[in-house]
Amino acid sequence: MTATLETLGRSRELVTPALRAAVSRLDPHTRMVVSYHFGWCDETGTPLAGNGGKAVRPGLAMLAAEAAGGTPADALPGAVAVELIHNFSLVHDDLMDRDTRRRHRTTVWALWGDATAVLAGDAMLSLAHEVLLDSGSEFASDAGSVVTTATRELIRGQVQDTAFEQRDDVSLAECLDMASAKTGSLLAASAAIGAVLAGAPTATRAALSAYGAHVGLAFQLVDDLLGIWGLPDVTGKPVFSDLRSRKKSLPITWTIDNGGEHGRELAAWLADGTRADRADDAELAEVAALVEAGGGRAWTEAEARRRIDAADAALASASLASEPVAHLKSLARFIVERDA
Question: What pTM was computed for the model?
């Protein structure tokens, strides 16, 4: 894990100056709001020594470029673009979910209101395309197609996720499709865009895209585990956060579909909105125990590992440089083993 953190740290060191340069193009207020979201300043604009998160997506883009025979510099515009798109989605996601905390800090909408959060997210999405168009890369158009398609899929997944909140009959297949779109699409794009900007052939791009898609689904599976059993001091979110919001996450839907009596009890609890809204920590702990007893936790952990094995197989299907591939494999395992 230490080697993986060092790899992500190097990627972050490369991408942060370019990311800051992109954000500097924004109007003063939006620039301050976006800088706050990245952890670069406090709510008054006073600079902080924040690093903007783990930078998994930029790390994927740069490693993919190296694996395909290019350099991290080739991938830099794509790394900035996918990080901007990721953070656009986070700011909007916090608003839609009414989450007031992210990375142990107050969220953008909770500080400045809904309109500012919408506009700050839109600004980051626009910047992502601007950075690619201004890159001067002969592959900028192809890279732009990668991120526009991924953004459309990301939004499709978010639409599904929002619609699921109004339904009691969400199936595991639907939830997997939603997660593949909402999370998997951008991680697939992050790996693919590095190969695209390195000028890699179609088969290489496809292999790295498949790797990213599997890693993305593993990421969401682990995220869903943390949404129930994650430690608030580590995740920055309240205990049992996904249960509080009655989210139709992967462990939940698997348990309802396959957990027998435990699944039926879980489904009944979720359907009783009034009871769920009033649940205290003790009751939520009992609901989490239902998911575990019904097999949802064990299945989610096993499925995350299976997806990582599939990611490894995707890498093995292409002719790639060995050292970057080793880092890509380590990064995938870091995602499954993380606690935040």
Answer: 0.93
